[in-house]
Amino acid sequence: MRSGIVVIARGGSTRAESKMVADIHGKPLLERLIDRLKLAKRADCIILATTCLPADTELADMARAHGLLVYRGSSEDVIERMLGATLTYELDFTIIAEGDELFCDAEYIDQAIEVAEATGADCVKTKDLPIGSWVVGVRREALEEVYQAKGDESTEAFARFFTEDSKYKTSWLPPGEGIPPFNPRLRLTIDYPEDLQLAREIYGRLELGGRSTRLMDVMSLFEQDPDLIEVNAFRNDEYYARVKERTSKSTSELANEKRGQQ
Questions:
Q1: pLDDT at residue 261 is higher than 50
Q2: Residue 77, SS3?
Q3: What is the CA radius of gyration of the chain?
Q4: Which of the pair, 174 or 17, is modelled with greater confidence?
Q5: Which domain holds residue 146?
Q6: Is 0.85 surpassed by the pTM of this model?
Q7: How many domains does the chain have?
Q8: What mean pLDDT comes out for the span 82-110?
Q9: Residue 236 contacts residue 185 (beta carbons within 8 Å)
Q10: How many CA atoms lie within 13 A of 14 on its CB side?
Q11: Which of 40, 35, 14, 17 is CA-nearest to residue 25?
């Protein structure tokens, strides 16, 4: 089984402007994410899936400079970019690393690939990890089916196309020993300026202290200084409201809309 990591990233963020090239303690966010993904041992390649817009050439060039493959596709359809990268580089199983999931961990990437190989699952997803550290893996055939069936609306929150449909076999990865219970106020995702501020604080404290930035060390930092959570926790109401709006229609409703248009 050929497995790879597809990084979904583009410029043009309205909430945290140019976040993928924003400085995170001395390196652009995209480079920080690449460094983390390269720790995975089971992936055969890492691919940046960005858009064909001229503004995203900078991201494509940065990715190539750090040894990544590149796929450029739709500026709006996220699943098209996932599938395009998967087919172009002949992946059987694709780990999706969204650009704002800076703290996704190589340990869970390797686990997801191992579970897919052992069980034949269509989708493998982490469970109860902090926002901003999630890992999702999907099998190529399932991704092709979802692309054909989905509607034309925004395809953000893509994993629900698999987890909400019983036809797809989904395996869940538990948080693992040492990871505290899920805290909905803790946000590691990069969506707002305050999220960038927290990421800089995390990298600064850990690197200056000579520690790694693996998820376990990040969570230990919050245990040592619980006040860190307040840097961006107030953004959660807005974040969850936006997620609710994006997912107001079920995946079956979106699919039915597409069938009605054909």
A1: no
A2: coil
A3: 18
A4: 174
A5: 3-261
A6: yes
A7: 1
A8: 97
A9: yes
A10: 0
A11: 35
Beta-carbon neighbour count of residue 170 at 10 Å? 18
Q: What is the CATH number of the domain that holds 216?
A: 3.90.550.10
pLDDT in tens, 66-87: 999 999 999 989 999 999 999 9
First-to-last alpha carbon distance for the chain, in angstroms, is 35
Kindly report the average pLDDT of the chain as a whole number. 90
Both tokens of 205, joined, read: 């404290």
Task: Report residue 3's pLDDT band, with 50, 70 and 90 as the boundaries.
Answer: very high
